[in-house]
Structures are given as structure tokens and as C-alpha cells.
Amino acid sequence: MDDIARQARQGSVAAIIQTLNEQLADVGVRTRAVFADGVLQLLCEAASKEQLEPSALIAQIRQILEGIAPRNIRRVRINSRIVREQQLLWLEEIMRDPEDQLLWSEEIILAKPNLFKRIAQGIKDQQTVPRKTPSFTNASSHNHRHNRRYQRGILNGVGLTLLLIVGGWFLYDWLGSKVAVKITTQSQNSTGESSLTPASSITDPFVEAVRLAEQASVAGQTVKTSAQWLDLAAKWERASDLMGAVKPNDQRYKTAQDRMKLYRKNSEAAQKQAIQRRS
Predict the structure, then answer these.
(1) Could you tell me which of 21, 155, 205, 242 has the fewest CB atoms within 10 Å of its CB?
(2) Are residues 206 and 161 in the same domain?
(3) DSSP states of 177-244 as a string?
(4) Has residue 213 been placed in a domain?
(5) Domain boundaries, position 246
(6) pLDDT one-digit tens code per residue, 124-133
(7) Is the model's pTM score more than 0.85?
């Protein structure tokens, strides 16, 4: 089972970005995303306007996202601009001055995935969860019957679990409450770029960037899976963005520019590791 695909279905923005970047690489489009106020804000960047032609790109992104069917994500705003060397806090920049920052912007609503498809995917996910197989050393007929009853109990338990999952999906869709969005946002905060910290709450982007870089350095000593490498890449990228937000009149500006480039390289290296782990 593809760990990145499973995380993307669960609503991980970092995993969604990874999937989009892989499938849009042929057309030369790179994506960045944050989840803010119940909307997945997606930034598409390319070297030329032709690569960002709206009708084709929007249709392709819709197809990819509806194929993923990310949990609790229905509204998606697609923003586009020519790629830039210096990556700032892009969502704040385009919200402040969208006419100068963007080529175009459009919001789409993702269709809900087919119920039977979700049930089938849930069963597939359950089957991929590793389970310990009980070890029995007694070969007597009594123990054999006991073992069979034990195994039937496990199968019944799995069936009950799947039934609860299906029931939970129905209840989850029916509620559609803000609680679900809140849970998604909180779970995505651990991915680094999965949520947006408003500029008003960042009093010193340099300090915040250093804090994130220290977290990434510590996390980099224990990462193993492709999903963990992907989360690490998101942390480094967020730290780089924050360094890019340091003002030119700040005495730490030159240091911030150097660290911005270094953190960007660390993010790219972590993304490469994620791809290698998948293969």
C-alpha cells in the first residue's frame, strides 16, 4: 500500500502536494498548498504562461484531487503565477495584492467520492494493516479447535471494525460540522506546511524560522519512511519561507537570505529522499 496515497486520502496537505507535483511534473508545474479557513489554497507555478493555461490545468488538478478524495477537503482555490526564485509567505502576498501577484485564480468544489469506492478503499486499507499472527506450539485436536475459534473471533472482529468504519463515514458526512474541519486542521499542523500561521501572530519570522529549522534538524535524525521525509521537507520549506519574509532593513537580512537558500536545499533533499523511499 502506498503510504503517501493513504496519507493524502486522510487529508495530509504535504502528501497531497507530493502527489500533485509528481503528476504535474510532465507539464512543468510545481505546486504549493496550505489549508486555511476550510479551503485548500493551492499555488501553481511554472516558467511560462502557456504551462499555466487555466482550462487544462484546472481540469487536471480536479481529476487528481477527486481521485485522491482527501478527507474533509471539498473547497479548493487554485492560484497561479510565474515561478519565482525567492519564495515568500505566498498566501499572504497574494491575498494582499492578488492582481499583481497572480495570473489567475479560481475556486472549485470537489465531488464527493462514490460510497462503494470509499468502502472498498477502507477494506483495502484495513487489509494492509500489519497484524501479528498468533503462534501455537501444541498440535492437539483440542488446541486446533481452540485456534479455529480464535481465528473466527479475529475475523468477526475485523468485520465489526469495517462495519463501524462504514457507519462512521455515514455519520461523518451527515454531520458536516465545524468539528471535523477543526480536527483536520489540528492533525495537519504537524506537517509543517499543512496550516498557515497568520502574519499577525508572527512577530519575528527570523526567530520562528530558526525554531522550525531546529525541529527539522532533530526530526531528520530519526526519519525512515517516505511520509516522514515528506513532512521534514515541508518543515524546511516553511522555515525557508519565513527567512524570506525578513525585511531588508533588518540587520539579520543577509543571514536570513543565506539561510533561506540553505533551508530550501534541505527541503529539496528531503523530497528526493521521500521519492527514493517510495521506490
Answers:
(1) 155
(2) no
(3) -HHHHHHHHHHHGGGSSSB---GGG-S-HHHHHHHHHHHHHHHTTT--SHHHHHHHHHHHHHHHHHHH
(4) yes
(5) 197-279
(6) 655 554 544 4
(7) no
